[in-house]
Amino acid sequence: MLVLVAMPHVALAFDLAELMAMLGQVSESSVAFVETKYVSTLNTPLVRRGTMRFIRPDQLQMRVETPYFERMDIAGGVLTIENRRGIRQIDLDGQPSVAAWVASIRATLKGDAASLSRLFNVALTGQAARWSLSLAPREPGLSGVIQRISIDGTLARLTRIEVDERMGDRTVLVIVPDVDKR
What we know:
Layout: H1 16-24, E1 28-38, E2 46-55, E3 59-66, E4 70-75, E5 78-83, E6 86-91, H2 96-110, H3 113-119, E7 120-127, E8 130-137, H4 140-143, E9 146-154, E10 157-165, E11 170-177
Helix pairs in contact: 2-3
């Protein structure tokens, strides 16, 4: 006697190459964000709101609107910060935690699996409709500052970035798509 068993539809495996290919198709994106920074020495978190824009190949701009104005432009290895005190430039090579955050976001937005894998131990979970990247720094100097970076998304869109630092601080960036079409 032949018995046929109906198997539920099983989604095909979703891998890093597929995610990076989807992300690599996006040449520019503009989003709104709410950033909440939990600092171990403070009783309440710091909350900032603003917009973020990525322009291929490596330009990342963040504009904080509240609770104060600040604009950050990252191009290549230089971070330019403008606020009420003026403009200053920072070489990212001298700021490992900032450099890791920038590298994780830019490499993810570019769909650059090679850079991500060079800098981090990368683990991907989920499916295209809802995925999560877990990035653990490979370099001892960086892993002494950053414990883990988690990036969540849906299809070719990032929805949340969380940075856990070794000293107990944590930053959560919640992202809302397509708000700034400038």
